[in-house]
């Protein structure tokens, strides 16, 4: 079997397993939780948990702070699927675990993918533990998960990214933030490959390029999702100022600690947003 045939088989099988676990629930929204934001999964009612290990082709996770499980149930009365943990491109160049995850969601009827991540701020006005609505992105990963043979059953070879971060659905997230009185910045997210944090010179470059926050995720997920016709929205939880913009030393432990501080607002925002996104 070729890699792409195996992938196709994995999506089919994982879709069947997930559909059986959903037992008639039909979530149209899936939420991928970023580093330190896993607490949202505890808000899910009537939860059914499926470990990634039971879904063929799903990522096998290695980084601390990321556990691999899918939780389906109700968030604020709305059927959702929450994904705890994903594979980053600093862990592997293999795009298939992410592709399997996103395309399996589509296979079970998901229409909107809500991405979240921990990110470094490039603007003095966007502070630590605050939230930023992702309005656009810059792919500086040095790769695109969709290179190589294209499977037309998922999506077309070439596709536009003009409205990749859905403006109408994003407006609903802004409305939810206003309703909850949660400050929500707006900005462009630039993905570096990692695993090193950036140098101060790289941060200055990203600022000149028009980015407002930097991280190591979400861009591949967005590309795979847009390719197969899912709508995408996203929120960054700011865990630190970009390198050189403060005296702080960047560490993963620090990222998780500060993500936890922003997590309460994040959870409240997503809970308030899902009924609007579903309507
Ligand atoms: N850079 C890259 N990724 C990150 C950062 C950062 O400053 N903070 C959290 N994830």
Helix content: 25-40%
Radius of gyration: 18 Å
N to C succession of SSEs: HEEEEHEEHEHEHEH
User: Which segments are poorly predicted (pLDDT under 50) over 5 or more consecutive residues?
Assistant: none
CATH class: Alpha Beta
Number of helical regions: 6
Number of DSSP-assigned strands: 9
Strand proportion: 15-25%
Give short descriptive properties of this protein.
single chain, 279 residues, alpha/beta, Rossmann fold, 5-stranded mixed β-barrel, 6 helices, globular, binds hypoxanthine
Walk me through the structure:
With 279 residues, the protein is an alpha/beta fold. The protein has one domain (3-278): Rossmann fold (3-Layer(aba) Sandwich). 33% of the residues lie in helices and 25% in strands. The chain has six helices and nine strands. It has helices at 3-22, 96-107, 167-180, 200-208, 219-227, 252-278; strands at 29-33, 45-51, 69-75, 78-84, 112-121, 131-140, 184-192, 213-215, 231-241. The chain has a five-stranded mixed β-barrel. Helix 1 packs across helix 2 (96-107), helix 2 (96-107) crosses helix 5 and helix 3 (167-180) packs across helix 6. The radius of gyration is 18 Å and the shape is globular. The termini are far apart. The model has no long low-confidence stretch (mean pLDDT 94). The structure holds hypoxanthine. Hypoxanthine is lined by residues 118-120, 192, 197-198, 214-216, 239-240, 242, 250, 255.
């Amino acid at each position: 079997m070729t890699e792409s045939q195996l992938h196709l088989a994995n999506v089919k099988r994982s879709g069947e397993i997930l559909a059986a676990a959903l037992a008639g629930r039909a979530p149209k929204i899936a939420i991928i939780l970023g580093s330190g934001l896993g607490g949202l999964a505890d808000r899910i009612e009537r939860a059914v948990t499926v470990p990634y290990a039971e879904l063929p082709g799903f990522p096998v996770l290695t980084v601390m702070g990321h556990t691999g499980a899918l939780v389906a149930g109700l968030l604020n009365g709305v059927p959702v699927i929450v994904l705890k943990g994903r594979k980053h491109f600093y862990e592997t160049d293999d795009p298939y675990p992410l592709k399997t995850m996103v395309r399996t969601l589509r296979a079970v009827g998901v229409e909107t993918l809500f991405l979240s991540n921990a990110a470094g701020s490039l603007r003095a006005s966007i502070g630590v533990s605050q939230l930023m609505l992702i309005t656009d992105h810059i792919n500086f990963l040095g790769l695109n998960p969709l290179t190589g043979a294209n499977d037309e059953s998922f999506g077309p070879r070439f596709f536009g990214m003009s409205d990749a971060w859905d403006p109408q659905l994003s407006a609903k997230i802004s409305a939810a933030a206003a309703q909850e009185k949660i400050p929500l910045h707006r900005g462009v997210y630039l993905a570096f490959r990692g695993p090193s944090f950036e140098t101060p010179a790289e941060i200055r470059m990203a600022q000149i390029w028009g980015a407002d926050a930097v991280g190591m995720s979400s861009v591949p997920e967005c590309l795979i999702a847009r390719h197969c016709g899912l709508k995408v929205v996203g929120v960054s939880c700011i865990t630190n100022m970009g390198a050189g913009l403060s005296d702080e030393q960047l560490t993963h432990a620090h990222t998780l600690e500060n993500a936890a501080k922003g997590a309460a607002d994040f959870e409240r925002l997503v809970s308030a947003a899902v009924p609007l996104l579903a309507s």
